[in-house]
Design brief:
Layout lengths: L2 H14 E12 L4 E6 L3 E7 L1 H10 L13 H13 L5 E6 L14 E6 L8 H12 L9 E2 L4 E8 L9 E10 L7 E10 L6 E11 L6 H12 L2 H15 L11 H7 L7 H10 L12 H13 L1 H4 L5 H11 L7
Parallel strand pairs: 3-5
Antiparallel strand pairs: 1-2, 1-4, 2-3, 4-5, 6-7, 7-8, 8-9, 9-10
């Protein structure tokens, strides 16, 4: 998404998303209508979206999501009713009031975006975006930056050179993510932009990150401090030294057949080994004249696999994708 589009949606969320504290009084599963008991014996009604419904189950102590109960809705409805009857603890509803005025009349139910404990602190996406723009400018990677009701992710990029050889580092970037609907903490990260194959495919992977929980005492202030410490020129220079050394390190396996052994030592799940070997075969870098392969070459095979074949797999998981990269990072320093 373009920066201006992300900013426009973040502005809308900041203006129209509100909070309401109350005790869950009733929930109609079929209509998704939630009723809270609020101050002065009043009621507040909202229509929960799918995210809100799943969070309601968690709030009530029911394991699983609404999809897990698709074949047994009667059981789920009874379980929800039973849990509500025994619950008196207040919660916080995050909802979109839309463009409706406070004195409008008629049937209307605001859209419930999330339901959380009262200790959850909403950090507005626009606040994070404005801070990021002041720190890094408004040039972002439009392929990987986006905003939705669930989450905002913004990647600012800074190119170093324009070589398009597999394994080359073409730039570093800084970014951040946030959720106003309890779908992740407040995160900041430094990422590395690499060419992973000769057709010019660019891969962006986190190499340093911070994470702040929304129930922290001062989440935004903690985020600012963390970003200031992490996003420095010295950090980039340190990483460049590691990567420069990695490209010319001696081989750590004697042949392609031994790559799975090294992946096992890196604790990368076996189900990914064949795909990673295939990723290496597409771009055989880091190989010496005797057929030995260094860690840089194997690491490139990992990123090739996670960015191509694995992304097309029906069981693709973005979190596991990042975990595989983290597990492979030590290969860069193996001698």
């Amino acid at each position: 998404m373009e920066f201006n589009d992300i900013s426009r949606i973040a502005q809308y969320q900041d203006t129209h998303w509100k909070e309401q504290i109350g005790v869950v009084q009733d929930f109609d599963y079929d209509s998704s209508e939630l009723t809270l008991s609020i101050q002065n014996d009043k009621e507040f009604t909202s229509t929960l979206n799918s995210n809100g419904k799943d969070q309601l189950l968690t709030l009530l102590g029911l394991k699983g999501t609404t999809k897990d109960f698709e074949t047994d809705k009667p059981f789920l409805k009874k379980a929800i009713a039973r849990k509500i009857d025994s619950r008196s603890k207040p919660c916080k509803l995050i909802y979109d009031k839309g463009s409706r005025l406070e004195d409008d009349v008629g049937d209307w139910s605001p859209s419930g975006k999330a339901i959380t404990g009262v200790g959850y602190k909403v950090v507005p996406n626009i606040k994070i975006l404005d801070y990021g723009e002041k720190m890094f400018g408004s040039t972002i990677d439009t392929r990987t930056s986006y905003i939705s009701d669930i989450k905002m992710i913004v990647n600012h990029t800074s190119k170093i050179n324009k070589r398009l050889i597999a394994g080359d580092i073409i730039g570093f970037g800084n970014g951040y993510s946030n959720s106003q609907s309890r779908n992740g903490g407040l995160n900041g990260f430094m990422s590395m932009l690499r060419v992973i194959c000769s057709n010019g495919w660019i891969d962006s992977k986190h190499i340093s990150n911070i994470g702040i929980k929304h129930n922290s005492l001062h989440p935004f202030e903690m985020f600012q401090v963390g970003m200031t410490k992490m996003c420095t020129e010295s950090k980039i220079k340190d990483m460049l030294k590691i990567l420069d050394k990695a490209t010319c390190r001696p081989s750590i396996v004697e042949s392609i057949d031994e790559i799975p052994t090294m992946l096992k030592l890196a604790r990368i799940p076996k189900r990914h080994h064949d795909g990673i070997v295939g990723g290496y075969l597409k771009e055989q870098i880091g190989m010496d004249e005797d057929g030995g392969i260094n860690g840089w070459g194997i690491f490139n095979g990992v990123t090739n696999y996670t960015s191509h074949e694995y992304r097309q797999h029906p069981l693709f998981d973005a979190i596991e994708q990042q975990d595989i990269i983290k597990l492979a990072m030590p290969l860069l320093t193996v001698r």
